[in-house]
Structures are given as structure tokens and as C-alpha cells.
Amino acid sequence: MDVYDRSILRHLQQDGRMSNLSLAERIHLSAPQTLRRVRMLEEKAVIRAYVAQVAPEALGLGVMAFVNLSLDREQFRNVREVERQLKAFPQIIECHTISGDFDYILKVVASDLKNLSQFLTDTLMQVPGVASLRSMICMEEIKPVSGLPIE
């Protein structure tokens, strides 16, 4: 990846809807060269997707929580099945395997605290292989999802 590719990524992280012509002007390449580079970055999955970042409150999702999840290794051995089920819940907007005392950290959204509690207790804790949860309610989002640092 050269300086042009990094510049493309920097600009597209700021505005994924930027036209190819505008992008070409900003990185000082021709439009065809720029388009070829963008397509290559897409094919190599360097650019994973183009998405709109939606305000959760606009959809009535006023509560966000980070949930630490531990697996019960005695009762359940198929970790990939647990992961498949976690991916299926729309309330879980991020899921990461972590090191330390827990196995996963989840970013969960809900309409209110009661809805969050119901999801954690009645749904997530019922997944075979889940041993325990610990949730932390997000009080205020200081820095929302942003682009990666590109040197």
C-alpha cells in the first residue's frame, strides 16, 4: 500500500460517499487511476463496506451497554456455535473475542434499561454455553466510531 492508497483510505473514511472525481482531485491522480485503486482496495477487502452511521436515539435505542461474556467450558465445547448465535442477535452491534477474565466483549443497544435487562436475562443467558455476563451501561458516548489512524 503506497501513499496514494493511504490517502484514498483517509478520505473515504471521512466521506464514503465522495465521488470518484472529487477523490481523484484530492489525491492528485486521474479519475481512472483513482477508480482502479479503489476497486483494488475493495477486492482485497481493505475497504470492507460503505455504511451510514445512524444515531441510535433516532431509532429509539436510548441505551447502550458493554457486556462481558464468559463461556462455560465444562458444558459446551462448540465455541463457533455460540459465536454464530451471537452474530444473529440484532441488539449486539459489535462482538470481540478478548483476553483476560472474560471470553467476549459485546456492544449492545436497547430501547431502555428494562429491554436491556430482558435481552440479557431472557435471551443471552439462555444461549447454550454462556456461563456468565457482566454489563456496563454507557452513560455518554464521547467519541463515536471513527476511522482508523492512517499514517
From TrEMBL:
SUPFAM superfamilies: Dimeric alpha+beta barrel, Winged helix' DNA-binding domain. PROSITE patterns: HTH_ASNC_2. It holds the Pfam family AsnC_trans_reg. Residues 1-62 form the HTH asnC-type domain. It comes from the Bacteria. The keyword Transcription regulation applies. Keywords: DNA-binding, Transcription, Transcription regulation. The keyword GTP-binding does not apply. This is Lrp/AsnC family transcriptional regulator.
